[in-house]
Design goal:
mainly alpha, about 70% helix, elongated
């Protein structure tokens, strides 16, 4: 798929939640389809306000005395004129519906992208922590092997250390699979194919403190 120029510039840098939303608004196939529907609705409104071209008639009759009588006529479909206002209103209602549907989808897409970005960031941070735990468990198991060879610990203690290292590695692989799935969902919402060079930030910010009373929130709403 061809990237929008602005989207390509955003993807050239590490992508945070705001950048992901901007790219999605530029690249989302879902929004492109809705904007196409909106254009069709606008065209229908324009078509509804126009009347077809009137018909021009011409008739020439020869009189018995040798003269000629010419009659011109101009006609327009009566039903078309009669229902022009109704067609105009229906077209505008359809356009308003399309506009509201697009507005809803834009807000929904932003919410979905931000949620997907948060999920990816959280799973990435968790994978980083599990990677550290798996490395520590592996080092502990290797050290236990040396202790066992020296006769300082029993075979059961060694087996426990090795089992703990294996469990930590399995947990890490499962977490990495979750990171891959979260990345795929986020990129799908953004309308972008995966690329090795695409860097997604995984820094989660603390929630913003909400310091507003009920009346202020109602006024904003």
């Amino acid at each position: 798929d061809v990237l929008d120029v602005q989207a390509a510039e955003l993807l050239a840098r590490p992508v945070d939640a705001d950048a992901a939303v901007q790219v999605a608004l530029l690249q989302s196939p879902r929004l492109r389809a809705l904007f196409a529907d909106l254009g069709i609705a606008q065209a229908n409104v324009y078509d509804a306000t126009r009347l077809s071209n009137p018909s021009l008639g011409y008739e020439s009759l020869s009189a018995s005395g040798g003269g000629t009588q010419t009659t011109w006529s101009l006609s327009q479909g009566f039903m078309e004129v009669l229902f022009a206002g109704h067609r105009n209103r229906q077209g505008r209602y359809a356009l308003l519906e399309s506009q509201q549907r697009v507005a809803h989808e834009v807000l929904q897409l932003e919410a979905d992208v931000r949620a997907a970005w948060q999920t990816h960031a959280a799973t990435s941070l968790s994978a980083r922590l599990r990677s550290g735990s798996a490395h520590a468990a592996q080092v502990s198991a290797e050290l236990a092997g040396r202790f066992h060879e020296a006769g300082n610990i029993s075979a059961l203690q060694l087996a426990r250390e090795q089992a703990a290292a294996s469990s930590a590695l399995i947990a890490l692989r499962a977490q990495e699979a979750q990171v891959t799935a979260a990345r795929g969902r986020l990129l799908a919402l953004m309308g972008v194919k995966d690329a090795p060079d695409l860097e997604l930030l995984d820094r989660l910010l603390l929630p913003v403190a909400l310091d507003a009373d009920l009346e202020t929130l109602q006024a904003i709403a």
